[in-house]
Amino acid sequence: MPVTVLLVDDEPLVRAGLRAVLEAQDDIEVVGEAADGAAVIPLVSRLRPDVVAMDVRMPLMDGIEATRVVLRTVADPPKILVVTTFENDEYVYEALRAGADGFLLKRARPAEIVHAVRLVAEGESLLFPAAVRQLAANYGTSKARDAMERAALTDREAAVLRLMARGRSNAEIAAELVVGVETVKTHVSAVLAKLGARDRTQAVIAAYESGFVAPR
To answer: Which of UniProt's keywords are assigned here (predicted)?
Structure first.
C-alpha cells in the first residue's frame, strides 16, 4: 500500500511543488490538499492520510495549533511532518513539542522530501536536525531534569534514548548495541512509558531539554 499524504500550505505553488515531487514516487500518493490548518480536521477524518505535510505558518490556524487539534481529536492520528522556510524557527520547535513527528525545509531537494515522508511514515527514526536540537537544549528547565531523574532509566534504556536522539532507527540501534530489533522495540516502549512520552519525538525533546543528551 502506498504512503498517503495530505498537503497543508497556504501557498499554492508550494503545494503544487510537493505534489509533483511526491506523486512521481510509486509508493507515495497525495490524497488531498488544504490551504489552512483550520481545514485539516475534516480532511484527516475523511481521507485518513498516513502523513500530513503541514506548513507551520498559516493565516487562520497555524501548524502548531492544527497539530494539537489533530492529535487531540482524531483517533489513530496521522504522522505530522512540519514544513517550514527556516530551520531555526521557534515555531518549528513548538510544533514538535505539540506532537509533530519531524520537519522539512521548503527548499529541500526532491530526494530529501521523499525521504522525509517515508521516514516519518515508518515512525522508527526522527527528523531532528542540529538547529532544532539546539533549540531544545535552550528550552532546558529544572523540571525537565527532575522528570528525567524520576524516570530512572536503566543503562540499556539510556543508551537507546541517546541513539534515538541521534536519529537512529530501530535497526540501526540494534546493530550498534548488538541486540535484536525486537529487543530495541521493547526498550523504546519502556523509555516512552517511563518518560510519559507519546512517541519518539517527545522522548527526544525530553532528552535534550533535560540535558540528558547535549546538542552537537
So the answer is: DNA-binding, Phosphoprotein, Transcription, Transcription regulation
The answer to whether the CB of 51 falls within 8 A of the CB of 6 is yes
Long-range contacts of 186-194, Cβ-Cβ distance < 8 Å, separation of 24 or more: 187/156, 187/157, 187/160, 188/160, 188/164, 190/154, 190/157, 191/151, 191/153, 191/157, 191/160, 191/161, 191/164, 194/151, 194/152, 194/153, 194/157
What sign has the CA pseudo-torsion 28, 34, 37, 40?
A: negative
143-151: Cβ within 8 A, 24+ apart = 144/206, 144/209, 144/210, 144/211, 145/210, 145/211, 147/195, 147/196, 147/206, 147/210, 148/195, 148/206, 148/207, 148/210, 148/211, 148/212, 151/191, 151/194, 151/195
* Structure confidence by residue, pLDDT tens digits, 178-203: 999 999 999 999 999 999 988 888 89
Is residue 116 within 8 Å of 129, Cβ to Cβ?
no
Give tens-digit pLDDT for 4-16.
Answer: 999 999 999 999 9
pTM above 0.85, yes or no: no
